[in-house]
Amino acid sequence: MTNPDETIRFSVSLPKALLDELDRRVVGKGYASRSELVRDLIRERIVEATWDRGDEEVAGVLTIVYDHHQRELTQQILEIQHRQFVQVVATTHVHMDHHNCLETIIIRGMPAEIERLSQEIGGLRGVRFAELTRASRIQN
Ligand code: NI
């Protein structure tokens, strides 16, 4: 009987230069230990693989900065959000200055649909910056 939450210790052989690189990242990124960094690297790859497979529901956060004065842009962004086959869970809007609005859009759905929505919003005239953060459920 094995418990999936059990932590198992195993040893890994690495070239010295690669281990040094790992340790620089442990320090540079403020990790408590090599193990914690390696766990996070593995989880990152799992999220990437889930998005690449594309066969299960995931979540994404689209961050955009757009021109407040671009006519009808806000309306276009809203219409795209309503029309898609993905679920827009929440949006947050911040007025950065007189010209720039920052918005985060939390989206749930299949990876391809989230990518499509993000590209469509990112491609609108007046959207100056668009970046999608990809997330998924991770066991342990
Ligand atoms: Ni604004």
TrEMBL record:
InterPro entries: Acetolactate_synth/TF_NikR_C (IPR027271), ACT-like_dom_sf (IPR045865), Arc_rbn_hlx_hlx (IPR013321), CopG (IPR002145), CopG/NikR_regulator (IPR050192), Ni_resp_reg_NikR (IPR022988), Ribbon_hlx_hlx (IPR010985), TF_NikR_Ni-bd_C (IPR014864). Its cofactor is Ni(2+). It comes from the Bacteria. SUPFAM superfamilies: ACT-like, Ribbon-helix-helix. Residues 9-47 form the Ribbon-helix-helix protein CopG domain. Pfam families: NikR_C, RHH_1. One of its GO terms (biological process) is response to nickel cation. Ni(2+) binds at residues 82, 93, 95, 101. Keywords: DNA-binding, Metal-binding, Nickel, Transcription, Transcription regulation. Belongs to the transcriptional regulatory CopG/NikR family. This is Putative nickel-responsive regulator. It comes from Thiobaca trueperi.
